[in-house]
Amino acid sequence: MATPFATVNQTLARERAASVQASTRVPYHVAIIMDGNGRWARKRNLPRIAGHKAGTDNLRRILRASVELGIKVLTLYAFSTENWRRPQEEVNGLMGILEMVIERELDELDRNGVQIRHIGRLDRVPQGLQLKIKSAIERTKHNDKLILNVALNYGGRAEIVDAVRAMVAEGLSADYIDEDTISRYLYTCGLPDPDLIIRTSGEYRTSNFLIWQGAYSEYYVTETYWPDFDENELRKAIEHFNKRDRRFGGLSQ
Ligand code: FPP
Q1: 10, 30, 142, 157 — which has fewest CB within 10 A?
Q2: Residues 6 or more apart whose Cβ sits within 8 Å of residue 135
């Protein structure tokens, strides 16, 4: 009997993933600026919120592929400190989608060993969503397959302000403050800096994302809008990352 088409496809996908892993270094920490939801929707004459929904549906395949590839930390830019400037309707819609996605995906994420974390300022986030985030963090805190770091109401400058405030509040003497100290006071304390930062939709900006941690990250920009950024696009980004010569300011080996 012929092998069903879906099975062939799944086998090919598994083999492709295995070959990427065998021949390439998989970045430990990947961070993504998920851009282009609005333009994806406009191209289809849909409201912007439909783009955010499609972008959210895309998370599932990127998370699965990340676990499969062996990525250990995935940081996603879900909502920036500047995104509050968007129309109230869009902000509310996004907050609703975030709440829905936690409800919908939490069981599977937990089953697959994903540890959920949050970076950013939770205070301005609606109460209901705050509670869901806190309970997802608590429920998954012992998982160790992949750390999913959700940047929500996140801004790189705000993060540095918060770090400086905490250091001052704790009375740290200037003599003790060096780069490692600052790293320890950032929201990402304890996590390695991102190896690879991906930005979808063709914009060449950091948009206040991981501005301290990204000092030596490799950047990869693709024209593809976030809802269309699938597992093959992720593999392509990793293949590009592998061609980079990371010198961290030094010389090639
Ligand atoms: C940028 O597209 C995208 C966002 C501001 C929101 C991204 C959020 C999600 C995909 C929701 C789920 C996320 C998590 C981690 C649960 P844009 O609206 O700026 O697109 P445009 O530049 O084409 O207008």
Answers
A1: 142
A2: none
Residue owning the nearest CA to atom 12 of ligand 1: 56
Residues 230-248 have a mean pLDDT of 91
- With the most atoms of ligand 1 within 8 angstroms of its CB, the residue from 33, 35, 198 to mutate is 35
pLDDT exceeds cutoff 90 at 2: no
Q: Does 144 map to a domain?
A: yes
**Known catalytic residue: 35?**
yes
Are 27 and 192 in contact by the 8 Å Cβ rule? The answer is no
Number of domains into which the chain is organized:
1
CATH code, 104? 3.40.1180.10
Task: Say if 223 falls within a structural domain.
Answer: yes
User: What is the dihedral sign for C-alpha 222, 227, 233, 238?
Assistant: positive
Measured from CB, residues less than 6 Å from any atom of ligand 1 are: 34-39, 52, 55-56, 59, 76, 78, 83, 97-98, 101, 150, 201
125 or 5, higher pLDDT = 125
Q: Which domain holds residue 97?
A: 28-242
pTM: 0.90
Residue owning tokens 């995104």: 83
Give per-residue pLDDT as tens, 46-102.
Answer: 999 999 999 999 999 999 999 999 999 999 999 999 999 999 999 999 999 999 999
Point out the catalytic residue in the list 9, 35, 112, 144: 35
The answer to whether residue 17 is domain-embedded is no
